[in-house]
Amino acid sequence: MEGFFSSISFVLILCVILTDLVIAIFVYKNNPHSSTNKLFTLLSLVIPLWLSFNYLSVQPTYLSTSLFWIRLSFLFAMPLSLLFFLLAHTLPSDKILLGEKTMIAIVGATSAVMAIVASPLTISGIEIVNNTPQPVTGLGMVPFSILSTLYSAFAIFVLLKKLRRSSGTEREQIRWIISGIFIMLSLIIGTILVPLLLFKTNVFVSFLPLYTAIFIVMTAYAIIKHKFLDIRALVTRSVAYTILIVIIGFFYAGSIIVIGQYVFGFHQPRSSIVIMTIFAFVIAYFYQPLLREIEKVTDRFFYKNRYDSNVLLAKLSRVMASTLELDELVNLILRVMISEIKIPHGSLLLMKSSHVFWSRSMSHRDEIAVEFNHKDITFLINHVINKSGEGILLYEEILHERIKQIMRSNNISVVFPLVVNKNPIGVMLFPSKSSGDIYSIDDIHLFKILAPEIAVAVKNSLQYDEIKRFSIKLEQRIKEATKNLQDANRKLQELDQMKDDFVSVASHELRTPMTAIKSYLWMALEGKGGALKDKQRYYLDRAYNSTDRLIKLVNDMLNISRIESGRITVEMKKVDLAKLVQEVIDEVKPRAEELGISIRITRRSNKMPNQGSSDLIGVRHDRLKDNIMFSVLADPDKIKEVLFNLIGNSLKFTERDGEIRIDFAKEKDKIITNVKDTGKGIDAKDIPTLFTKFGMVEGSYATNKKASGTGLGLYISKSIIELHNGSINVHSDGIGKGALFTFSLPMYAKSLEKKLTKKFKNKREEGKDIIHSGI
Amino acid sequence: MKSKQILVVEDDATLRDLYAELLRNEGYVVDTAIDGGEALKKMRFGGWDLILLDIMIPGIDGFDVMNVLKDTPPSQPNGPVVYLTNLGGEDNIEKGLEKHGVKAYWVKSELTPGQIIQRVKGLIAEYGKL
């Protein structure tokens, strides 16, 4: 039983020590600059030491040295608790958070206590109990116990405080550490202290290292987790390394036993095998890192020009990922290569169909001009391209005389092609190394690895360049096109303005002579020049009417020009529509009476006009005393024009004894005005063109002697109504059945008035401005 | 009773003669002006019972004539000024009337000679009462 436990505890302690060491190194390497990692590394180095001393102190085999080991074990318990406290306090920060003075005090106190612990004051001797050496303690135990308890208590206190305050990853970390401590403590209490107190047995003491290992592993995980390190990598590597070491250890120990026993015939003492095996482990463990370090040192001293190809590759990868700009990329590639491999300068040439179209040469610092013989280079490139499978040209290995001569005369030692998908895109040229050394097999190997990577990077950047150029060109084209469009637009606007100006000026200039004609005709008709014969009167009357029509036409055209160019201004105000209509009726009344047509307002307040029906029930407006007002928001002059147009049309197309009736209706927020006549009506096919420019019904005037129109009245009316956000419509049951014109206008509301006033804000307040705007 | 004096400012010779003849036939004393400069000179002299002022005239236009006149009052007071123009359908002109101290705004092409005489008579009668 004893033997079993002792061998178990030996294997355990060995495993734990190895695990601790691996973890220590791993955590350190994970972030060598972080104090947390450093403290943890120290802690996980001190723990195995402490465990070893502890182990050695209880081995009956080494009774003679037990006192020494016990003292060491106690001695190392001090820094152990200190480190524990510091780690708890620092975690997860990169810097120790304690002040310098506090640190000095703590380290000082710890050192003092350590001195006491080392002295016989603490442990005066040992006594053997149960075949196990036990320390005989003295007064020195007091400061030791106080300080180590303080440290541990503080550590746990700090951790608990952090757990409460922290969140996220940090909370997670601290939870892991506290769990580690908790598991360790509960295992120690449960399996060591309780059996010791209750059953006076300490068989489980051997598991102590395992418990510490649990804590170490969990803490290491907590620290590393913070850096998002793949825990699987840690486990895999540790396992692999441990297996390696175990294999070597067993192989070594086995070899020694077997060879020693059967070849040389002497029996090795177990302890020496153990020690040798441990050393074998240590050697195996440190072989790789040591080799690397020593290589570095020797290289530095004996082989100055050697470069680390890993470093070069890493640097180049970084460079190639850093930019897409061709200039920058090539500069950086060349600079990295020549400074790492130690070449005085280097060149990169890009070619298209075996002609160089771009080249760049760099020294360590700057871009330089390296003169190559153009013809030579072309020849060289063609040679390289044709033998693209061959890859790198090395001066020393070239047999081709011409090439050798070209390389010599142009100071080129190595040429390597840049090939993407079997298409050569360029070459890199380097002279001899600064040291004068020839390019080694390693160099060539490296070039072979680098060439395709550089080629792809350069190609990408070339394409990027092309795209950039294309996009610049495109942008220019767009700018040009935009400018052309703007010019065209401006020209159109100018033309439009010219047209408007022309119409304005022309109509004004036309009106003057027309006024003269009309006036003199009037004079003649009035008999100012003497009595007229009937025939003469008839002719002059016709001429007079035509002139009148001509003037109207000019006016209408001017109006349309103004409406279409958006230069018309409407002055919105509250208008009583019924009153306005009455004014118009009063003006046309003489003519209506002359024509024998009755014209009046009927009024309906809510019903929709019964379209097509002549059954209009109403009362005469002048007798209407009710309070219904048909207030609209409109420009009275413009609406008057519309009314003149509509009533004028009705007058023209209504026979003697006919009727024109006007009534109003409310519909939502609109006022509808209906102008209904009993005239000749409109054919359905003519309705769609009625409101268009010169959209008068064909022949309407030819058959109507009293009618004279411009064909613009309804178009203008429609435009005016639409300027008021209203709509205009016509309805007729057909020829001979009369016509109903309907237009809507917005009902007056104060809010609407404000809105519209803004919209139609008159830009030209003064009449004078009209002149200058070209009327 | 002394004949009323009317100044007709009109650059178009035909219309100028027409209006002058029309008004003379009604017994008014009529003088004419062809351009802004002449109009201004005659208006500054003052004493007109009515002025019919065209707007689109050579040199200083009708608006400017009124502007200048506002700053330098005539030596003898004038009667009402009427814009007699062919700038049709300009509500903006109407807005400028008060500012320019102009009584009315008549569109030549829309009025028959008879209507013009009627209006002139009306205005002179109105002005005479004041």
Automatic annotation (TrEMBL), chain A:
Residues 505-749 form the Histidine kinase domain. SUPFAM superfamilies: ATPase domain of HSP90 chaperone/DNA topoisomerase II/histidine kinase, GAF domain-like, Homodimeric domain of signal transducing histidine kinase. The keyword Transmembrane helix applies. PROSITE patterns: HIS_KIN (PS50109). One of its GO terms (molecular function) is phosphorelay sensor kinase activity. It comes from the Bacteria. Residues 471-498 form a coiled coil. It catalyses: ATP + protein L-histidine = ADP + protein N-phospho-L-histidine. Keywords: Coiled coil, Kinase, Membrane, Phosphoprotein, Transferase, Transmembrane, Transmembrane helix, Two-component regulatory system. Its EC number is 2.7.13.3. Signal peptide: none annotated. The chain crosses the membrane at residues 6-27, 39-56, 68-91, 103-126, 138-160, 176-198, 204-224, 239-264, 270-287. Pfam families: HATPase_c, HisKA, HisKA_7TM. The keyword Transmembrane helix applies. This is histidine kinase. It comes from Candidatus Roizmanbacteria bacterium RIFCSPHIGHO2_02_FULL_37_24.
UniProtKB/TrEMBL annotation, chain B:
The keyword Protein transport does not apply. Residues 5-123 form the Response regulatory domain. PROSITE patterns: RESPONSE_REGULATORY (PS50110). The keyword Phosphoprotein applies. SUPFAM superfamilies: CheY-like. Pfam families: Response_reg. Coiled coil: none annotated. InterPro entries: Bact_response_regulator (IPR050595), CheY-like_superfamily (IPR011006), Sig_transdc_resp-reg_receiver (IPR001789). GO terms for biological process: phosphorelay signal transduction system. It comes from the Bacteria. The modification 4-aspartylphosphate is found at D54. Keywords: Phosphoprotein. This is Response regulatory domain-containing protein.
